[in-house]
Model the fold of this input.
Amino acid sequence: MKIHPAHLFVAASITVSPFAYGQTIPNPSFEEPAVPAEEAFMTPVSPGYAELIPAIQWAFGMPAGICRQNLAYAEQLQAPDGAQVAFIQGDPSTDTGDFPVKSIMGVDVTGLEPGKRYEISWQQTGRATDLGRCAISATLTASNFPSIVLFGREPVETKGAWTSKGAEFLAPADTLRLNIQHAIVEPGNPDPGSESTLFDDFQIKAVD
Done:
């Protein structure tokens, strides 16, 4: 039996979809790589820190990294999803200036449909033993588009108990860079000790 060439064209065109989207946040619960139970990994390397192993596909700057639940910077905490969490940190006794940024983490959010609304969310808490002087800013950026501010210099209100953070946005491009900055609300505070914010279970979904 002969098949007309036009029929071949129709059959092939059905299988090709240049407009398929599937929004993704890679490694959303920081389970890769697996961290040995006795260690926390921080970056950059310096005395007292472990070796430089950030979460796969995430970028970390200044004191930041991943650790296992109930250990290191996640003491007294169970991870909301999986067994590992991310943390970013600062030290009030060494901060100077107006709301200095002490650490940052970021990841590419991909598979977005430009012009469509999405909600991004995650679980967040302050370290249980901290005094509660942390704040975060969260932005989405893409080349040639204005930055989208999800949260701006917002204090971390919980310690040792997870709380859900979420915000909606209109996607201007198919890939956006999510950056979360951590800072100390009271720069120059003489009280010793670092302040840490922990994160887990990042999610993104389209808004109907």
Remarks:
- The radius of gyration is 21 Å.
- The chain is about 5% helix and 40% strand.
- The longest strand covers residues 195-206.
- The first helix runs from residue 5 to 15.
